[in-house]
């Protein structure tokens, strides 16, 4: 069962990748960011946090698995 809201920790756990890898290879890629902003919250400042609608982020990851997984670097 998918949590309703995901934190960055949930996203890291779901992908099995490190936080820096997730930020660099998913969250900050312009074509992904524009999609994710529809169902996610990007931090506005250092005291803010990422948040995502769990079901929509899971669907996003599943639909783009090969594209994301093989994007640029494959290291954790």
Automatic annotation (TrEMBL):
InterPro entries named in the record: DUF771
Organism: Staphylococcus carnosus
Superkingdom of origin organism: Bacteria
Lineage of origin: Bacteria, Bacillati, Bacillota, Bacilli, Bacillales
Protein name per UniProt: DUF771 domain-containing protein
